[in-house]
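Field reference: "sequence" (input) and "structure" (output). Example, Immunity protein 43 domain-containing protein:
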Amino acid sequence: MKELYIWFNRTQLPKGYPLQNDFILKSQFDLEQPRKIYDEKWKMYNRFNSEYPTGEFQFPCEMFMVVTKKKYKEIDFDYYSCDVGTSIKFVSESFLNFLSTNGIDKNYYEQAKLNVLDLAGNSLVSKNYYALRFIKSDDTLFDFQKDTFKRAAGIRNHFLYPFMELKRNIVDKNVFSLFEFCYEETLILNEVAKEYVLKHFSNPQLYKAEDYPFIFNNQHNYEMLPYNNSYLIHC
């Protein structure tokens, strides 16, 4: 079995990442009401009811990440996924290019330009960012070895798979995206992608697939599992 790796952003994050509760994601920005949350149809898209969003349910072409806390002087990351909506991931332009050349092309997602602003409307970034809403996954490419599952802590009827593996070797595809519940906010990488990510991107949060169940189930236990822990893969 070839080793697989998982990029998973915990709630404890390195410098440059805004915490999930410290920003608002929306498709409009009003300087007079920067905290305003709009009633927008794109938020109501449910992939279980419709394979591809249409009309008002489509992802906007431009999005705003409005950072609400003054402690963030600059935002700088390459990949960030957190629970802000169904299968939404934030990426730098260089990371988007990496995805496109490693098996995650435009057929996988809807894409929006991402503006990262403070409450005064000032940009907090020095490079280009995009928000991606995934509408396609690679679940069918994997054998999850479900007879060896581990239960997800505190989440009924959802499981983790320490011995998951690809059903077959896939040429020219090194990165994978899943809709499986406990993996939806991750990216799966093979050895080639892992080595590239470690060399070219800032603060990759990579774990071996076999270690991921422990990481997921203890992600909020900072005493047991601080950000810099023995499971986190470094160069």
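The radius of gyration is 18 Å.
The chain has a mean pLDDT of 95.
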